[in-house]
User: Fold this.
Amino acid sequence: MSAQDLTKLWDKQGYPVTPESRPLFHNLNEILPDGPTPEQQACLDLYETIRQHVQAPIFTQENPGLARAWFGTRLKTAGYLFNDREAIIVSITDRIPTRTLFHELSHLKLRWVDRFPQLTLPDPRRNKPVEKLLNNELDHLEFLPREFEIFGPRAREKWTKEYSQFPSTRGPIDKALAFPLVAIRSLLAQHVLLPPHRKKINQTARRLELQSEVDAFVKGMTKLSPNRSDMIKFALDQFQISRSGAKIRTESPDTGKPLIQTIV
Assistant:
């Protein structure tokens, strides 16, 4: 699905064109007649923070086909799509777990409230995996510690497992494809996982003979943090991806018009 196709998900009034979409928390009293749990309250607080900064409608939509087409077959619950000042949290079922909802709202907060820039690379057929990896995981670098704080060990173990799973190492390894994945996950492990949880990711770097490159990447990215634009530029250089035609997009909720800068 292209960016142009994505804009067709909304009508001129800013509502999703598919009938199964519904505004998030529109029937809150029916859903939570006895009041929210602490975890549910954390979601509500995050939602209110977003709404205070921008009156952006946020919808949920059960659409397994769209979810898997946009986010891949490994998606187990939900992901988010946004277009200017509207967003849809797309799920593969009609029930979105509280932790997942908090996670997707955290992505939206970084877009609209904190205004963290997002990378767009030319030649999406070739560059889409790295573009998505950088945008998604640099977001995680910001908010996973808060997610762990609210949802406890189960959330930490979930992401430890996620970051420890790598493609099969049987046969020759294409370093051009393996390096971005191992490097980004090593960066996340260093900053959001506990020391025992980092071991398996470090073992993967050594097994792929990428340890020195990964160490340099983590050191460089850590030094540049929290300057997201500089981190993105550094990562592209480390991954040997040309900056030509690459753009950094920062959302501007006040006007609804994003600031788009070409990387030079």
In short: Residues 124-151 form the longest helix (28 residues). The radius of gyration is 19 Å. The mean pLDDT is 83. The beta strands are 22-23, 58-62, 78-83, 86-91, 118-120, 247-250, 259-262.
